[in-house]
Amino acid sequence: DIQMTQSPSSLSASVGDRVTITCRASQNIRTYLNWYQQKPGKAPNLLIYAASTLQSGVPSRFSGSGSGTDFTLAISSLQPEDFATYYCQQSIGTPWTFGQGTKVEIK
Amino acid sequence: QVLLQESGPGLVKPSETLSLTCNVPGGFLSSGPYYWSWIRQPPGKGLEWIGYIHYTGSTNYNPSLKSRVTMSVDTSKSQFSLKLSSVTAADTAVYYCARVNYGGPPRGDYWGQGALVTVSS
Q1: B28 pLDDT band (50/70/90 cuts)?
Q2: Which of A3, B17, B44, B69 is 20 to 30 A distant from B91 in Cα terms?
Q3: Which residues of A are less than 8 Å from B97 in CB distance?
Q4: Which residues, 6+ apart, have CB-to-CB distance to B104 below 8 Å?
Q5: Which residues pair with A59 in a beta bridge?
Q6: Which residues of chain A are modeled with pLDDT < 70?
Q7: For the segment B43-56, what is each residue's pLDDT rounded down to a tens digit?
Q8: Chain A: residue nearest B104 by CA?
């Protein structure tokens, strides 16, 4: 199985901050990388697919980059509704696997 | 907007079979480049992909669960289903159904709200 490792596991930030989350794959996954946001008690919501393509309806302050084994999710100016847990997921090969999650908390 | 809805018992006894159904409105089940997937999340933990089914009936299961998982699809009812046999407390989780769009790199673009299933006697 392809292992996905996110860092950090959690972070504290203030509204307006720029935030970056990294995701590393245990092998080359090209750009088969998705990012999801999950709020407590809710289902994950797709933010970015194919490493850098913004899902329809997602605010442009979210962006994704990377290819191969190293990927980044960036939030350019953190908003109150962005406090949540973020997961990366590889979809180049089954079993599809997720990172362990990064919890973004209010400083 | 594709509103998926999971349904099924919220409590299952150890060693029994967990059964869930996902309703897919609007005729999407047998259209488009879509897989219909199940993902689970134990309380306070991360996400685990269980597997997917195509409307043609072809399946792909996570090897870690493959011996206990069966997925099926009923296009006449616009539903797909999950059965997980011989459950233990470790199978307690929120179970999500999701549409995976494989028009391009696969991604879960619509998810159900989730169904909590507790395994306990």
Answers
A1: confident
A2: A3
A3: none
A4: A49, A50
A5: none
A6: none
A7: 999 999 999 999 99
A8: A50
